[in-house]
């Protein structure tokens, strides 16, 4: 069983992934995979340098995520270009990780699940959403960025309506941690019982 976990930035994907792991899911953090392929010597680093320039490469040879983020979150065409560079490398690594994991329950924690083409590998998709102000506060605290920088990220992401219309389960995480946990537990129990 492969479950895709996605949704809006700041809606609680890391918390949800930890909960899935408690229920025996092997979680693959696709953001971490993206960092792997953009490390010094990583599969995608030469293409990133070629298209975005030397200035987005750190002294150690890895991609400077902040500098690239500043570029792509303000320009949809540049974001599309970055995704076209990274996604094939990420997909190849995810496939290899699934093959190696030895688990019959896999969670793909992937903010860009739909854009990367990972949704086709999933038996079900769980999307997380939350009120914009709640997400803004979480993102600013988590990443130490300004309100404007957080809002710029919002402009490049899918809408709540998109997630509701394209997911098997949509969980709203605008209220308390306890309420979110209860909703998650219900969804996980239903997914496990379907197998």
Q: Give the CATH topology of the largest domain.
A: Rossmann fold
The counted number of beta strands is 5
Contiguous runs where pLDDT drops below 50 for at least 5 residues: none
Helix content: 55-70%
Mean pLDDT: 92
Shape verdict: globular
Helix/strand-derived category reads alpha/beta
Q: What CATH architecture of the largest domain do you see?
A: 3-Layer(aba) Sandwich
Question: What sequence of helices (H) and strands (E) makes up the elements?
Answer: EHEHHHHEHEHHHEH
Rg for CA atoms? 17 Å
N- to C-terminal distance: 7 Å
Features:
single chain; 195 residues; alpha/beta; Rossmann fold; 2 domains; five-stranded parallel sheet; 10 helices; 56% helix; 12% strand
Tell me what you see in this structure:
The chain is α/β, with parallel strands linked by helices and 195 residues long. It has two domains: 1-25 and 103-195, P-loop containing nucleotide triphosphate hydrolases (Rossmann fold), CATH 3.40.50; 31-98. The protein has ten helices and five strands. The chain has helices at residues 13-22, 30-37, 45-52, 65-72, 76-101, 113-116, 132-143, 147-155, 160-166, 177-194; strands at residues 2-7, 26-29, 106-109, 124-129, 169-172. Strands 2-3-1-4-5 form a five-stranded parallel beta sheet, with helices on both faces. α2 (30-37) packs across α5 and α7 (132-143) crosses α8. The mean pLDDT is 92.
């Amino acid at each position: 069983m492969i479950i895709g976990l996605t949704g809006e930035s700041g809606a609680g994907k890391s918390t949800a992934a930890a909960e899935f792991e408690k229920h025996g899911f092997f979680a693959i953090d696709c953001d971490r995979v993206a960092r792997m392929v953009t490390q010094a010597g990583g599969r995608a680093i030469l293409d990133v340098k070629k298209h975005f320039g030397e200035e987005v490469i750190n002294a150690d040879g890895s991609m400077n995520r902040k500098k690239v983020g500043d570029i792509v979150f303000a320009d949809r065409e540049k974001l599309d270009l970055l995704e076209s560079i990274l996604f094939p490398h990420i997909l190849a690594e995810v496939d290899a990780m699934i093959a190696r994991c030895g688990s019959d329950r896999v969670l793909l924690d992937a903010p860009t699940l739909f854009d990367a083409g990972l949704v086709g590998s999933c038996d079900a998709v769980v999307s997380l959403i939350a009120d914009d102000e709640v997400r803004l506060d979480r993102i600013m605290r988590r990443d130490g960025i300004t309100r404007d920088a957080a809002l710029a990220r919002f402009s490049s992401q899918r809408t709540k309506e998109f997630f509701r219309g394209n997911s098997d389960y949509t969980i709203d995480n605008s209220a308390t941690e306890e309420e979110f946990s209860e909703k998650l537990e219900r969804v996980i129990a239903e997914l496990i019982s379907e197998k």
